[in-house]
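Please, structure for the following, as tokens.
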Amino acid sequence: MNEAFRRLLGGRAKSLDKIFPQLPLVSGQVHRVDAAEGPVESLVAEVSGSGGRREIYLLPSGDRGDSALSAPIMPNAWDAIEELPVPLLKVAATGEVIASNREARLLLQSPITPQTRLSDLLEGLGRPIIDWLQEAAEGRGSLAPQFLRGTGAHQDTFVQVSLNPAGDSDATHLIAVLNDVTELKTLEKQFVQSQKMQAIGQLAGGVAHDFNNLLTAISGHCDLLLLRHDQGDQDYSDLVQIHQNANRAASLVGQLLAFSRKQNLRPEILDLRDTLSEMTHLLNRLVGEKVRLTLDHDPSLLPIRADKRQLEQVLMNLVVNARDALPQGGEIRVETENAVLAMPLTRDRATVPPGSYVVVRVIDAGTGIAPETLPKIFEPFYTTKRTGEGTGLGLSTAYGIVKQTGGFIFADSEVGVGTTFSLYFPSHEKPLEVPVQTPVIEAQAPQTRAEGVVLLVEDEAPVRAFASRALRLRGYTVLEADCAEMALHMLDDPDLQVDIFVTDVIMPGKDGPTWVREALTTRPDTKVVFVSGYAEDAFGENQAQIPNSVFLPKPFSLNDLTTTVSQQLH
């Protein structure tokens, strides 16, 4: 408390409630002060001091009336507040900035001349600023603080502005108290963007799940038709086209699931040097002759745990993006290195926790990405390319795969300079595992007759119809149920023999793992095949608790289904 404050109060006060009869204080508004010679109306300005302290400044008006809102600020006080650590402007009701103190000029980062208007410095009110000023000067409307942003090159600056009448007899001037809320608005923007990405991800995951059911039925019934047609039939090529386009649709759905982090991943221990080396020929073909691809590896690069196929998709997407940013040719560099973070790394909307990481950078010196575009590049379907040149799913797919792998992806870009994508993957300290080569199942499996009773539980009728026909064609006896409750009711019959359950995971009522656990209490030796359009890890813990169970992702083909059932039974 300085000497002037003590003189006003007639001594030192120990708490705010001894000074201000009405709390809480609102910075930028007029409050009544219990002064030694009676109540005095004062404009209150508050700033954050060092060590988390609150610093409160008063501009007494000298007014001892009853209206806190109409109390003018002392007209001769302006000369004394040039060094006050609170940004202040004196503004005419017609919009001109009459005076400003040093803190206001530093905050607004703009020169202020006698011709400067408030609308030259701030915008974003949603209506003419002069209307707001005139209402405040005339005592009409609300004096509630307004959030504005800087103009021109300073649009990233956000300011909370509170208006109060100044000490003019004609009430044509106002005192504007400014509060820098840029950090708050930036955090709010990042939170909204994070919520938006999460909502889009949930929507994409739900839509992809529904599409996987449709594609299972389309491609499955197409498989059934192909069994009845030879290659010489005139309809055979049409059926093949339907099947191929269903597979293309399934690939797009897979990208949506990747963005929503519900894609089926098959992680393994990888050395990124080997992965990139194997991709070099393909990547060189993708970038073309005008672009040179350079790889720069850390010689002691640690392994990571990731799905190799999906990781290759991420790297291809990033390299293709870099190629498109180099229409006249140039160089794309892919760098890898080990990195140990001793402190959390906060970037954009994410915080990378401390630990050991493998960092991959894809760098180009291309056209760059505009600042207003950069925050949107990982959103699905967002693209700056012309219609027909891209789906807008490339970077969103990369984002989803990296996040589902447990990693982080960031983009740095400057227009005319280039772009760098940085990927952080947790390093894996265990030695590399030699992958086991699994035999590839050919499109046409042997037409052997199978035996066994299958209880098929699927709420989607088209999928159930296809799966039932496919299994019967292979010789299985199929019992159908459209929900878990119906399946459990059928199993109440002790004379009913069932060798294997084939069940959807997500269904109305009880889900797949729940009803299967109940059924296994009386039939513990029954094998189980779970099918779903969602990722296996979405319910992996539940499945892990169920013995003799495997997972088959949708969309699946006739041979995928019958081969999986056969392997489970034998």
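The domain at 3-180 is CATH 3.30.450.20 (Beta-Lactamase). Confidence is low (pLDDT under 50) at residues 65-75, 387-391, 434-446.
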